[in-house]
Amino acid sequence: MKAISSDGRREALAVIVLVALIGGMVVVRKSTETHAPAWPLTVAVIGDSYTAGRNNQVVWPTLLAQRTGWSVANFAQSDAGFAVDGQGGHAFSYQVERAEQVHPRAIVIMSGVADAEVAFTGAIGEGAADAINKIKLAGPRALVIGPTWYNTDIPASISSISDQIHKAADNAGVPFLNALDPPWLTVDQMQADLGGVTDEGQSVLADKVAAWLRTELPA
Predict the structure, then answer these.
(1) If pLDDT is split at 50, 70 and 90, which confidence band does 143 have?
(2) What is the DSSP string of 29-64?
(3) Residue 182: is the preceding peptide bond cis (ω within 30°)?
(4) Does residue 31 carry a pLDDT above 90?
């Protein structure tokens, strides 16, 4: 048998080491790919002052992000609704257009109470259909939450808002959550003039929304 020179042994050893290193790199890469965390769920939120905040230290979309690890963008505007423009003319349909620009996986409409002044005109249903259809055409999941209240004596105008939005969501084939049965808030979770939600109330809203979205959105 022919003896292998020292140079030959060094070359063979170098090849063995190189193969081992390459194999190790493949194993590490495969392990990294297997255990890499998924990208966070991206959610955009539409709403009124309950969602935008009014004298609040924190609002429920921020708490939602903290408690779920999702990426949550808040486009709510005070006093806005499906039919009412609110401050600056930013009705929900306008907010949807802004939300679409961040390309979220889902857009959540948190209905408010600003539409109460036009609750019996039919304008809310039309506005809801317009906003929902804009979301569907753009591609994200559309999810709609009806307005909530702070006691069980619910005004007829608020019930009418919820019913019209529910009908629009059903017609569009998107999920709807009734937040009046029972109402999510209490008087103690409202600010003194009942025009805004306290920070405690914001926490309640965050938990309610998170619980529902976990059943509606894939991880």
Answers:
(1) very high
(2) HHHHHHHPPPPPPEEEEE-SHHHH-SS-S--HHHHH
(3) yes
(4) no
> Which of 16-30, 119-133, 193-207 shows the lowest mean pLDDT across its residues?
16-30
* Confidence band, pLDDT 50/70/90 cuts, at residue 215: very high
Distance CA 139, CA 142 (A): 9
Measured CA to CA, the distance from residue 52 to residue 45 in angstroms comes to 10
Q: Are 165 and 124 within 8 A, CB to CB?
A: yes
Nearest to 209 by CA among 57, 70, 60, 77: 60
71-74 vs 106-110, strand pairing mode: unpaired
Inter-CA distances, 199 with 5, 148, 156, 189, 205, Å: 80, 16, 27, 8, 10
Domain ranges of the chain: 1-36, 42-216
Tokens 């036009």 appear where? 118
**126: number of CA atoms within 13 Å, CB side?**
8
Residue type, 162: S
Class of domain 42-216: alpha beta
C-alpha of 44 from chain center: 5
Q: How far apart are CA 207 and CA 67, in angstroms?
A: 8
Length of the chain in residues, anyone? 219
- Count CA within 13 A, CB hemisphere, residue 31: 6
Q: Mean per-residue pLDDT for 131-138?
A: 96
Give the global pTM: 0.81
